[in-house]
Design a protein that fits this description.
The complex is a heterodimer. Helices cover 70% and strands 3% of the residues of chain A. By secondary structure, chain A is an all-alpha fold. Chain B has 18 helices and 22 strands. Classes of the chains: A mainly alpha, B alpha/beta.
């Protein structure tokens, strides 16, 4: 009986802290065996490598919380990338206009996703899959499938006059001083800020709590007077807007509207959100877990790269981590039985 | 001498500690429709599942056409001639395939069938089956394009293609309109004439009157009455199904203060008669009636989940037309729905979050939740209604059914309401918790009007000041809960046909009525 209890609490501990311990262990291992890994610059590099996927993953987390899923985030991000480039280079608009346009586009896509799912009753995976295709196609139409760069020649023979403004590029390239000169890039700061906001929103506000209630039992949430449809639509709008933030940052870092970039965004960010289920034994989508999941992948890839692992191993490693995290979440947690906390 | 098709003796079945079937003895005869009645949890569905091979009986014997019968699984039961049409029609048909495929689906799984489907042959077979059942539709129609009755017919027709000895129909009319049901009844008449034994499970008295040759009532896992004299004793059957022990709860009915909720000529369905009642402040009204009598629909209309087809509601003298549940809650109309695990419990949340879910706004500042306020309010409610738990942080899933239900009802008592609707508040709740809940509801009844929707008469008698009986979406009777004439109440529940009750003019004195009931119950 007693050993049973001990086993149970050991399992509990393993589920709760296993992932964090693994994360720290991994960091320690690479610090010892990969020279140059344990430095502020390298740490910032890891953050920078996961900032954009992390922001997208936080958006997916919101849709996962209400029991949905958003497959369109990757294409929303690349659409934002193209839209910002198009509005600055070809329409010759300012950075502010470009950013606002992108955010509005993300919100609109989220709204349409939400309406398709909530009002038209299209299953979430299918609705957002359709939207993904639509956007992948749509973003190529204005430039006839070409990338957008300063000084490109337009179909009518003239040359694009606009440029990426310095203010826009600042978003992707500026680094704040922190102890060291030019240490913290803007995307990393934004990632941490958004993670904090989503964490507070989902975990500590009544809106977040109601969204979790919808994800767990939609009927029950509706019958206590929650406007289920509105919360679901809002979740998709948050997801769309965060995806376009990711796209803006990517454009600002690249400095051109590159049609081919952002291919991996969808899979990487979904993986981060799903890995997040396993963090702290939450067994459900949560912002802290998502951020930790993104970091975990970042550390692993950075460490392996510094230990000269070939680039083509990256996706394989991500897949292994994801499968392990899912087993963690769904198998071990189901054995643990009734959860104690909210 | 009628032929006995299926004979059950001493059938028992338990799930864990839950003793669901406690020795069922039953004969089902060829060419006879046996109606099986029973309240929720009486064990009807378990009995059906044992018969059709989903469950194994723990003890007892089954015989089919004189031979021992113990199906190894559902397919085995079908091949031996016991065919079941389940309640949810879409379990019985494949909506995306055409009628022909649906009718002949079983043949595709038979051993020895070739790899390729011969559509023409299949259609010919299907047409034969359809014609024999009097179905006229084109067999190439997609089932999804048919109406519910046709789908039901197809489920039954497929069953009939097997030439069954015993046909089990589980609530077959629950989603049929009156004319659709008539077609089903005509079919049942035909099958009866062909000598099939039919077990017909239903709550609808009108259906039972139409088709039943005999009625078997179940209560608490045992047969509580068999009625086969002509004419059938419908009131006796309902009585045996609902049962009645003298309630220990002593209620001193209050007549209530000013009107809070008024229903004026409310029609729940297009073709149902108007309902008019007034619910007053401080009073507890129980609406009772069999499943499908309109109690749930009435609750849904008042809570804004459904729209009445005609008539109006008044709340505190003003017209009240809730657009949604949240609208109703804003206006002070709260509802604790039935089927708590589906409609109320958020399994991922702890007690505190489940309890405070409707009123999170009151527990937050600038949208940020105050966990302390949530926990304080919850732990106070826990001690007031007596939820048995370690702390308010326990997961809701760690509680027993009765305690979960206390949390679900306590949820709506956190704030003052004008109208409190409780739909089947005692569902899956043990007797102790039931008393606690009833007591607390009555204790806090001042300042609002409370409408309780229950199928069991006992529960109504335990909680209400006034009892309104619904039957086929109409008010069939109304009683102040003091020395209620139970015979008359049960007769109202079972609907028109009261003349069958041997009630002399002027009514039976209550004491006598109750003793008659006791006798009937013990006789059954």
């Amino acid at each position: 009986m007693k050993s049973d209890n001990m086993n149970k609490s050991a399992l509990d501990l393993a589920i709760r802290y296993g992932f964090i311990v693994l994360l720290c262990g991994l960091a320690l291992f690479f610090s010892l065996y990969a020279s140059g890994f344990a430095s502020p610059r390298s740490a910032v590099f890891i953050f920078q490598s996961v900032a954009i996927t992390g922001i997208l993953a936080l958006g997916v987390t919101c849709t996962l919380v209400v029991g949905g899923f958003d497959l369109s985030i990757g294409s929303v991000a690349t659409s934002a990338l193209m839209l910002s480039a198009y509005s600055m280079v070809i329409l010759e608009q300012s950075a502010l206009v470009a950013v606002l346009l992108c955010l509005a586009m993300g919100a609109l896509v989220g709204l349409i996703n939400g309406i398709l799912i909530v009002k038209m009753r299209v299953p979430d995976l299918l609705a957002t899959l359709g939207m993904m295709f639509l956007l992948i196609g749509l973003q190529r139409i204005p430039t006839q499938g070409n990338s957008i760069a300063t000084g490109m020649s337009l179909p009518d023979g003239s040359v694009a006059e606009g440029t990426f403004s310095a203010a826009f590029l600042w978003l992707g390239r500026h680094r704040f001083d922190l102890f060291l000169d030019r240490l913290l890039p803007v995307p990393v700061v934004l990632f941490l800020l958004i993670a904090l906001i989503i964490w507070l929103f989902l975990g500590y506000t009544r809106h977040g709590r109601l969204m979790y209630a919808i994800g767990s039992n939609e009927r029950a949430a509706g019958l206590v007077g929650t406007n289920v449809q509105r919360y679901k639509i809002v979740a998709y709008m948050i997801s769309g807007m965060l995806a376009s933030v990711g796209g803006i940052l990517l454009a600002a870092r690249l400095g051109r509207g590159d049609i081919a970039s952002g291919n991996n965004l969808l899979l990487d960010s979904v993986a981060a959100a799903l890995i997040g289920f396993a963090v702290l034994g939450a067994a459900r989508p949560n912002a802290f877990g998502t951020a930790a999941g993104a970091l975990f992948v970042g550390i692993l890839l950075q460490g392996l790269t510094m230990m000269n692992a070939p680039y083509y191993m990256q996706d394989f490693v991500k897949g292994v981590v994801l499968v392990a995290a899912l087993v963690f979440t769904f198998y071990l947690s189901s054995r643990r039985g009734g959860r104690k906390t909210a | 001498m009628v032929k006995v098709t299926c004979k059950l003796s001493g059938l028992e079945k338990s799930f864990g500690r839950n003793h669901v079937l406690r020795g069922i003895d039953l004969e089902l005869r060829s060419g006879e429709v046996t109606a099986l009645m029973g309240a929720n949890g009486a064990g009807k569905s378990t009995l059906v599942k044992v018969l059709c091979g989903y469950h194994f009986a723990d003890a007892g014997k089954m015989e089919l056409a004189g031979k021992p019968y113990s199906p190894t699984d559902a397919a085995d039961a079908i091949s031996k001639g016991v065919v079941t049409v389940h309640q949810s029609i879409d379990d019985g048909v494949i909506p995306d395939l055409d009628v022909a495929t649906n009718l002949t689906l079983d043949r595709l799984t038979e051993p020895g069938v070739g790899l390729f489907v011969n559509d023409r042959k299949l259609r010919r077979q299907a047409r034969e089956v359809a014609e024999s059942m009097g179905l006229t539709m084109d067999v190439r129609t997609r089932v999804a394009d048919l109406d519910v009755a046709d789908r039901q017919m197809i489920a039954i027709a497929r069953a009939m293609a097997r030439a069954p000895k015993l046909l089990i129909l589980d609530e077959p009319t629950s989603s049929l309109s009156a004319s659709e049901a008539d077609r089903l009844f005509a079919l049942i008449d035909r099958l009866r004439a062909e000598g099939v034994a039919i077990l017909y499970i239903s709550h609808r008295m009108s259906d039972i009157r139409r088709v039943a040759d005999r009625i078997v009532s179940m209560r608490d896992g045992a047969i509580s009455g068999v009625f086969e004299s002509d004419p059938l004793d419908y009131v006796g059957a309902v009585n045996a199904m609902l049962g009645h022990q003298m309630t220990e709860v002593d209620i001193d009915p209050v007549s209530g203060g000013k009107p809070v909720l008024e229903a004026r000529d409310l029609r729940l369905f297009e073709d149902s008669p108007p309902i008019t009642f007034t619910a007053r402040e401080g009073e507890v009204i129980a609406f009772t009636g069999l499943l499908g009598s309109g109690t749930t629909e009435l609750a849904e209309v008042i809570f804004g989940l459904a729209e009445a087809s005609a008539g109006e509601l008044m709340l505190d003298g003003k017209p009240y037309r809730p657009a949604s549940a949240s609208d109703a809650v804003t206006k002070g109309v709260f509802m604790s729905p039935k089927d708590r695990s589906v409609n109320a419990v958020v399994a991922d949340f702890d007690i505190a979050n489940n309890m405070t879910l409707p009123f999170l706004k009151a527990f937050s500042r600038f949208s940020f939740l105050s966990e302390r306020a949530q926990r304080e309010a919850t732990s106070e409610m826990i001690s007031r209604i007596g939820v048995k738990c370690q702390s308010e942080r326990d997961g809701i899933g760690t509680l027993s059914g009765g305690n979960q239900q206390k949390v679900m009802i306590g949820r709506w008592l956190l704030k003052a309401s004008r109208v409190l609707l409780l739909d089947e508040p005692f569902q899956g709740v043990d007797i102790g918790a039931r008393r606690d809940i009833g007591h607390y509801i009555r204790q806090t009844a001042a300042g609002r009007t409370t409408l309780v929707f229950v199928a069991e008469i006992d529960e109504a008698l335990e909680i209400a000041d006034r009892i309104i009986v619904l039957n086929e979406a109409a008010i069939a009777g109304e009683y102040v809960n003091r020395n209620v004439d139970l015979n008359s109440l049960v007769a109202d529940v079972s609907g028109p046909g009261r003349s069958r009750t041997p009630t002399p003019p002027g009514g039976v004195p209550t004491a006598q009525a109750q003793s008659t009931l006791q006798n009937q119950a013990s006789a059954g």
